[in-house]
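Quick one:
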Amino acid sequence: MILQRQLVGIGQIYFQASPIFGTVLLLCLYLNAPALALGCALGVSSASLAAWAMRLPPENRHNGIYSFNGALTGIGLCAGYRLDGALPVWIAASGLLTAALTQVMQRLRIPPLTLPFVLMMWLAMAIGQNFGLQPLTTLVAASCGSAPLNYLFCTLSQATFIGLAPLGMLLWAAMSRRDWHLAMSALAGASISWLTFIATAAAWPDSGIAAHATGAGINSTLVMLALGSRQYRWHLRLAGVALSIVLSVALGGLSLSYFTLPFILATWMILSGIKRH
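Output:
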């Protein structure tokens, strides 16, 4: 039962409250780089333990609401920093903080989405080296290229720092087995991003906008998953995708390591607009 709940928390990164999907994601992380799977397991476990210790609502704990940001942060830290003595401590502490931040945001009636993950990554970038973290590379998502199939599945997997399109296909297959419509929504989000950047590059070759294509694809995919999981209408999902693409380009132009911030902001805007109406 405990293991199943951890796997559900891992699956919630992609809005999949499924231990089967969580298992597939953990396997893909391991196949891409074993350290990513280790960081994910440590992050989700520490966040779950923190949520239990704080006696947060059991239903949300069992559904992985308090632990998926810990899992994602563990993956992100292992993708960007050397696996030495300081890193596991950072991951464990980040798991605790993400669970606490999620609870605070819920009390404020703000959808946490992946904001706790983004904040933890920024914190690591700001002060991590002062406390033992050793960067591997610059924390920027690898390019997914412009080939259609590679782009679609690479951006899906890059949400969890997996840079291989075949593993993205495996993730998508597991997602489609559980919810075909949601899986197609994810591909639609990535497809719109791809079409946007291909058309823009053709019309404006010297724009340099292609440098933001991968980040925009990741965030547009997540927007589709977030809004699709709540079964919002297609025009709202498309508006969210458009906003996420614009925000990805704008934040990327500022040389900001934005991670999933465009997805968060775009989703908040759509949800805020729905509430006002």
